[in-house]
Design goal:
- Helix content is 0%, strand content 48%.
- The chain contains no helices and ten strands.
- The chain has a five-stranded antiparallel β-sheet, with no helix packed on it.
- The protein is globular, with a radius of gyration of 14 Å.
Length: 126
């Protein structure tokens, strides 16, 4: 699975794409109200194909987080930043940093952009 580490207010959290566990493939916001994958944001299904470029978009606003792959919306969560948290597993030396991570796999990035959105939030594209 691919992790894009995010920030909303004082909270950090992870957006997870294409995490394989057995036969199941899941994507989700990690740690919504303390619940990891399997929470209400979980999307089931394969998103990536080997050797095919994909575009991921994560939009973070003050009360909403959306995730999409190749223009297909997979998560549209509404709530407060206090509902989101980051597992110690993904802790980074800089507690304010956005980050990239992966669970036992490799990805190649061709472009990463960060775009401010009217002072309300940020978008991270691949």
């Amino acid at each position: 699975g691919l992790i894009l580490g995010q920030r909303l207010g004082e909270s950090r959290f992870a957006t997870l794409f294409n995490y394989a566990s057995g036969e199941s493939i899941s994507s989700a916001l990690e740690n919504v109200d303390g619940r990891n994958v399997g929470n209400e944001t979980t999307f089931q299904g394969r998103l990536f194909e080997k050797n095919r470029l994909s575009q991921l978009t994560v939009t973070v606003l003050k009360d909403r987080v959306t995730m999409s792959v190749d223009g297909r919306a997979i998560v549209d969560w509404k709530g407060g930043s206090d509902q989101l948290s980051l597992s110690d597993y993904w802790k980074t030396p800089d507690d304010n940093a956005l980050f990239l991570g992966a669970y036992d796999c490799r990805y190649r990035f061709h472009r990463i952009t960060l775009n401010p959105i009217s002072g309300e939030g940020r978008a991270l594209e691949r």
